[in-house]
């Protein structure tokens, strides 16, 4: 249903003289609106939820440098939107709102020097999105931020030195590799379920790998845990059917292996646990047919 209140044929809005405008909302469902130029809105700080949602003809968008927040669904399902210029948005702190923009092919946020948070579902279901470049200041990528971006094959995380929480790449079936080596402050990972990752090296600061973080990564054969000296809670690898060995010997702070952590890892034949482990929760290794379950408490699981 349209929310355009009878203005379905509105094709142009002149914002050029709106120099005092601070908060923008109210254009959802304007199906004939083809371009939006907010460049003259020098005071604009916030684009509210659903502001231009379902503006199916919107193909050109200019955002103002002063913008600080783009809220959830602000530009969702703008089916004609191919490109968004983020390079001038040096005040942007919170970014959401582009879910379901099915023609959006790339996102370069490297110029967004103040950007700290990419919100839940921000670019979810942007099915032709192939590349994302993130800025060094980013602190949190929330769950679902890029979920279902089926064509996404490159995410530039190497400069994300401030990143602490990483979620958001669930179901990115084209994503085969990711470099987390530069994420020196990364503590929590939720991110990569149902992706094509084949190998992964985790950075030293990681403290928690959450449930389903890497679940269903059918191609994942190797995870390098050797530098994870801060890791305390480990979950999230259920259904990684190509994973054959897990060496946690270097995870000297590891306390808990969560419920279902490595469930249904059918090829898993060797697991080494550190002395620090206090609790292995139920079903942590269920369905791992190649493991001797009775050896779990001894800290070494060997092939049956």
UniProtKB/TrEMBL annotation:
Superkingdom of the source species: Eukaryota
Coiled-coil regions listed in the entry: none
One Pfam assignment: LRR_5
InterPro entries: Leu-rich_rpt_Cys-con_subtyp (IPR006553), LRR_5 (IPR026906), LRR_dom_sf (IPR032675), Surface_bspA-like (IPR053139)
Transmembrane segments: none
Official protein name in the record: Leucine-rich repeat protein
Species this chain originates from: Neobodo designis (Flagellated protozoan)
């Amino acid at each position: 249903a349209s929310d355009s209140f009878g203005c379905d044929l509105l094709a142009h809005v002149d914002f050029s003289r709106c120099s005092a405008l601070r908060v923008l909302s109210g254009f959802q469902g304007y199906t004939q609106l083809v371009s939006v130029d907010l460049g003259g809105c020098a005071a604009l700080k916030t684009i509210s939820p659903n502001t231009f949602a379902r503006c199916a003809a919107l193909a050109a968008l200019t955002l103002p440098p002063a913008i600080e927040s783009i809220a959830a669904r602000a530009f969702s399902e703008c089916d004609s939107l191919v490109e968004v210029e983020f390079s001038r948005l040096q005040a942007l702190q919170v970014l959401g709102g582009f879910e379901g923009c099915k023609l959006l092919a790339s996102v370069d946020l490297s110029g967004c020097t103040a950007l700290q948070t990419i919100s839940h579902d921000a670019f979810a279901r942007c099915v032709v999105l192939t590349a994302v470049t993130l800025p060094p200041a980013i602190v949190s990528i929330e769950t679902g931020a890029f979920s279902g971006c089926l064509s996404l094959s490159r995410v530039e995380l190497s400069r994300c030195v401030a990143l602490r929480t990483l979620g958001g790449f669930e179901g990115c079936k084209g994503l085969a590799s990711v470099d987390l080596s530069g994420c020196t402050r990364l503590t929590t990972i939720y991110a990569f379920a149902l992706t094509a990752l084949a190998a992964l090296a985790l950075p030293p600061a990681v403290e928690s790998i959450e449930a389903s973080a890497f679940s269903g990564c059918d191609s994942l054969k190797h995870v390098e845990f050797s530098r994870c000296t801060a890791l305390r809670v480990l979950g999230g690898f259920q259904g990684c059917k190509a994973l054959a060995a897990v060496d946690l010997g270097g995870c000297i702070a590891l306390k808990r292996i969560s419920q279902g952590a490595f469930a249904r890892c059918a090829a898993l034949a060797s697991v080494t646990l550190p002395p620090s482990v206090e609790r292995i929760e139920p079903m942590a290794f269920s369905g791992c047919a190649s493991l001797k379950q009775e050896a779990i408490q001894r800290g070494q699981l060997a092939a049956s």
